[in-house]
Write a structure and sequence with these properties.
mainly alpha; globular
Length: 104
C-alpha cells in the first residue's frame, strides 16, 4: 500500500496563524483572520471576482502596503460573509463591489 501525502498548498499553517493560540479576550480570532486573508489571496490569484484584484491594485497605487490593503479587502469579505446568512440571500456581487469601492 502506498501512502498519500497532502500537496503543498503554499503558505504553511503556521505562517497563516492557524497554530496561534486563541484567547477569547483578544480583539479578533487569528484563525478566522487567516482564513479570510486566504480567501482574499485566492480571489486575487484567480481573478474571481475581478473587483478584488482591481481594489488591491487601487489601494497599492494610493500607497497602502500589500498587507494593509489585503486586510482592508478582508474586511469587505468578512462583511459579505456575515451578510449572506442574515439576509437569506446568496452572495451579492453588487453589494460586495460596493463594499470594495468604499475602501481607501
Amino acid at each position: 500500500m502506498s501512502s498519500k501525502r497532502k500537496k503543498n498548498r503554499g503558505s504553511s499553517r503556521k505562517a497563516r496563524a492557524v497554530e496561534q493560540p486563541y484567547d477569547e479576550g483578544t480583539a479578533f480570532n487569528p484563525h478566522l483572520k487567516a482564513a479570510i486573508l486566504e480567501v482574499v489571496e485566492n480571489q486575487v490569484r484567480e481573478g474571481d471576482p475581478p473587483e478584488t484584484r482591481q481594489t488591491l491594485e487601487r489601494l497599492l497605487a494610493v500607497g497602502y502596503s500589500r498587507k494593509h490593503a489585503t486586510e482592508m479587502i478582508g474586511s469587505a469579505v468578512a462583511e459579505e460573509i456575515w451578510a449572506v446568512p442574515f439576509s437569506n440571500k446568496p452572495f451579492d456581487r453588487a453589494r460586495f463591489t460596493a463594499l470594495l469601492e468604499k475602501l481607501g
